[in-house]
Amino acid sequence: MTQNNITTSNFRPATHSDVNQVHKLLMQAIDESPYYLDEFKEFERSRLSKNYLYALIEEDPNHIMIMADEAKTIGFMISGPELGTLWLYWSYLLPNYRKGMLAMSAMLAFIKHWDNGRFHKIATYTKHGNRAAEVLMKRAKFKHICTLENHIFGEDYFFYERPLIKVSDGYDRGLNVKGRFGRFKHKMKNLLGLSR
Question: Is the pLDDT confidence value at 9 over 60?
Fold first, then answer.
């Protein structure tokens, strides 16, 4: 794969077998980010457990989109449904792959997939100083709606939205993360080869 383009085959929905690798990269992204307080990082590490990632895949495998260079996972985009809005929680690309247009190509593939009539909009946050994210949001036609002051653990966040056209009836109501039973169910599905 070139670093300037991502093809459909290189940007795909996650399967249960991807969860360990995605979780490892997600923890790396959280730990290495210079934009967040330790309290926020601790919260995210706890919230975005492997069980949570399995629940996202159960809801829709496209909530965890994998960026790959052949067989190697080089990045991901994690999203989740909330009452008609699709939240982009985390987007991460390994440092060696950040030059060129790969992040933009992945964002456009993500938008193209989710502009499927299911949600009113995509919403996300960025932090002051994360210039790469700000540029990406602007180029992908996200609108900076407002700056939320003292929003999460007393810090300011930039709130961005990108409209989609919702045509389907009903609304996604979020996830139901099922604790130990859910983890057992995922393990059994993996053992039986029934996982997505």
Answer: no
